[in-house]
Amino acid sequence: MLAQQYASIKRDLDEKGILFSFCGYLSEGILYSLGEALREKMVLEAADGPTIRRVFSVFVEQMQNIIRYSAEKMSGNAGRAVELSAGMVTIGMEQGKVFIVCGNTVRNSEVPRLKERLEHLKGLDRAGIKTYYREQLREEPDDASRGATLGLIEIARRASDPIDYDFNAMDADRSFFCLKVRV
Amino acid sequence: MDCLIIPATGRTPGVSFDFASGHLRMTGESYPDDVAGFFGPVFEALRGFLDCADGAAIRFDMELLYFNSSSAKALMNIFQMLETVAKGGRPVTLTWCIEENDDSMRELGEDFAEDLRYVVFRMREMPAGGVP
Predict the structure, then answer these.
(1) CATH level 2 (architecture), domain B3-126
(2) CA separation for the pair B75, B67 (Å, rounded)
């Protein structure tokens, strides 16, 4: 029963082309380790340096978004100050392209602003994204975003297709936010 | 201070600032878990060096293979510091090294170069085969 249950979860992930999946509390340490595994996998598949870095770059920005902005956090002292952020990250292959999906809880009050940013990015062509990047590179980050805008632009810039996002209301205060990027 | 040497780690760049000769260099990759913590001392050392102006030429080799968006802000800061002294008459050359065929890094170089009027900006291709 046990093996059957988990085999079915694994089969489900395999069928969706998922190579890695992590769900739970994330930290910079996990980002580093998963990132290394992702790169090693791509090196073994003989991907070239620029391609590996493009995928890696989207992965890093997505993971850091969760670590910084997840509305589900745990912090305390475990010998040193520790902050963990809950979320999920999934990396897979689909029609010959790598895709990275990240998900985390956000406060409903933050949804309109995030939506506005993502819609703006989706509406830009390559040249528009480049100009937007150049502008934001010179901007002082506002307090709430702590540089998130540049991270999202970086993601859109490395993506081969327009970014895909969605929100799912959880309760009166929170929603689940998902961002899918194909590289 | 004669030099600032910080060995590269898996996620922080190697810094080799030889202030005596004016040759500054950054290598490796940059996506620190604490960007301010890493770049703070780098800014401070660089500021100290640029403040005691002897007018000698500065050569900055940017050899990073990858940097994340928060590091981009820090790099911008460094280049603006260089631009300020270049405007004051000190010769500064910034060489942006990219691995061949790395169009993303080439584009980023162009983005950074856009703001530089007094710093001489050069793009240099390196053969592939570095750390991916």
Answers:
(1) 2-Layer Sandwich (3.30)
(2) 9
Q: Give the pLDDT band of residue A141 (cuts 50, 70, 90).
A: low
Distance (Å) from the alpha carbon of A17 to chain B's nearest alpha carbon: 24
Q: Determine the structural domain holding residue A133 and report its residue range.
A: 2-182
- Count of residues making up chain A: 183
CB nearest to B66's CB, from A42, A53, A157? A53
Q: Is the pLDDT of residue A64 over 60?
A: yes
B115 reaches A (C-beta below 8 A): yes
Domain ranges of chain B: 3-126
- Cα dihedral A52→A181→A24→B132 (10° resolution): 10
- Split into its structural domains, chain A has a count of 1
**Model pTM?**
0.92
Query: Considering only alpha carbons, which residue of chain B is nearest residue A44?
Result: B132
Q: What is the ipTM of this complex?
A: 0.91
Q: Report the CATH number at residue A167.
A: 3.30.565.10
Chain B residues with CB inside 8 Å of A57's CB?
Answer: 66, 68, 104
pLDDT tens, residue by residue, A102-129: 999 999 999 999 999 999 999 999 999 9
Check if the beta carbon of residue A85 is closer than 8 Å to that of residue A71.
Answer: no
